[in-house]
Write a sequence for this structure.
């Protein structure tokens, strides 16, 4: 893949794998264009292009990202259940765990960026080319003002650019913190019941943040998923008010996060240090999308670290762990913490991939069948009849939703995706 030059080169990087390379008039989807800085003329021009999701490669990417997103999310929930509630450790320090997860994500962001470049042929063969980090600039340039990293690299950090992502980072931090508190202070069925509100919140945000008029089949299938998940999670356990309340607040920030993430991604595309140089071209290139993908992850995780780690130290979480935990010398405990950080990092990456490939609402809806499967797994598949009915209802409703979404993808050739930021 050629480097993106600032000196006026007319060559452009290759088109994304979901685009038709034979079409010379393809532009970026308007669902990926900036939210507030895009002019009307650019919007009209970019809307003339089309993303060919109906090609075999496009659908392989679509279903592959959804499947991996659901699998990694289920693994993350199962691992946190083991860490907080199972075994002799029962590590009940959610703020400390959140800080460790962010620290692990920061380290993995640096090393995985270089690793993905080394194994890029394998990732592209698996239709995971979106995760390959773009090359750094050939000649590092001095950053103006306060910041560090080579200009244009994925580890670049500038306050002038980064301050635009503070809100998205705050939502992400609150999502992690409150979700860990909900998991630590409420049994899994209580946690699952409180998180059902994520789907209604997502419908609200899709309607009022994206100005969407959702079709009746989409609304029906979505609400059926929520009701099926309610039946799956319904059982007699000790009710913990603090866990339930934390779960409700966690549902709000979990539903809000993908919408703010898409908005931040659009803004990052507009604020890239490299801009399109082809005469008459509209919209960012494929390499620009890759650079925005990795750099946004780096900015959000860096600001989240600045918020969560000092907060955990001030509140005494680290001192409490050091003073009361007698198993800090156990290798298995640190293995579980490291595994939590690794799975959290993978979920962090795949959430942005899910939002980029599909839509924020799709990212939330995918958590429905994933949560139903996790409930069955953590119950050792010993559920009551009504829970199995809810389980089947959740999956059938998810297939219903997917069928309607696929029909909407190909309904109008000039519209690439249904849920667009306006």
């Amino acid at each position: 893949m050629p480097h993106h030059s600032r000196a006026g080169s007319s060559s452009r990087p290759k088109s994304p794998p979901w685009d038709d390379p034979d079409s010379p008039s393809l532009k970026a989807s308007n669902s990926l264009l900036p939210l507030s800085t895009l002019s009307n003329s650019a919007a009209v021009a970019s809307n003339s292009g089309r993303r060919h999701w109906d090609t075999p490669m496009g659908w392989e990417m679509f279903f592959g990202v959804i499947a991996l997103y659901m699998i990694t999310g289920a693994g993350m929930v199962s691992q946190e259940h083991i860490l907080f509630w199972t075994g002799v450790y029962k590590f009940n320090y959610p703020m400390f765990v959140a800080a460790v997860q962010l620290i692990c994500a920061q380290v993995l962001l640096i090393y995985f960026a270089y690793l993905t470049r080394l194994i890029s042929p394998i990732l592209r063969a698996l239709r995971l080319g979106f995760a390959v980090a773009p090359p750094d600039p050939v000649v590092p340039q001095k950053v103006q003002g306060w910041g560090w990293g080579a200009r244009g690299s994925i580890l670049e950090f500038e306050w002038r650019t980064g301050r635009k992502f503070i809100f998205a980072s705050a939502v992400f931090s609150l999502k992690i913190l409150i979700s860990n508190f909900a998991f630590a202070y409420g049994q899994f069925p209580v946690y699952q019941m409180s998180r059902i509100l994520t789907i209604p919140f997502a419908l609200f945000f899709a309607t009022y943040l994206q100005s969407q008029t959702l079709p009746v089949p989409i609304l029906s299938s979505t609400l059926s998923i929520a009701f099926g998940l309610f039946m799956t999670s319904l059982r007699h356990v000790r009710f913990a008010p603090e866990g339930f309340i934390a779960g409700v607040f966690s549902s709000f920030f979990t539903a809000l996060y993908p919408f703010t993430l898409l908005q931040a991604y659009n803004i990052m595309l507009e604020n890239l240090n490299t801009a399109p140089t082809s005469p008459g071209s509209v919209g960012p290139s494929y390499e620009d999308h890759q650079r925005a993908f990795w750099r946004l992850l780096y900015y959000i995780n860096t600001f989240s670290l600045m918020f969560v780690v000092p907060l955990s130290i001030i509140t005494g979480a680290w001192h409490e762990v050091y003073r009361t935990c007698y198993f800090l010398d156990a290798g298995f405990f640190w293995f579980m913490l490291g595994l939590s950080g690794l799975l959290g990092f993978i979920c962090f990456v795949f959430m942005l991939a899910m939002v980029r490939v599909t839509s924020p609402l799709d990212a939330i809806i995918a958590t429905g069948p994933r949560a139903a499967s996790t409930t069955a797994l953590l119950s050792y598949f010993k559920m009551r009849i009504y829970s199995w009915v809810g389980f089947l209802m959740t999956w059938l409703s998810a297939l219903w939703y997917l069928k309607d979404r696929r029909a909407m993808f190909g309904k109008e050739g000039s519209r690439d995706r249904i849920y667009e930021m306006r």
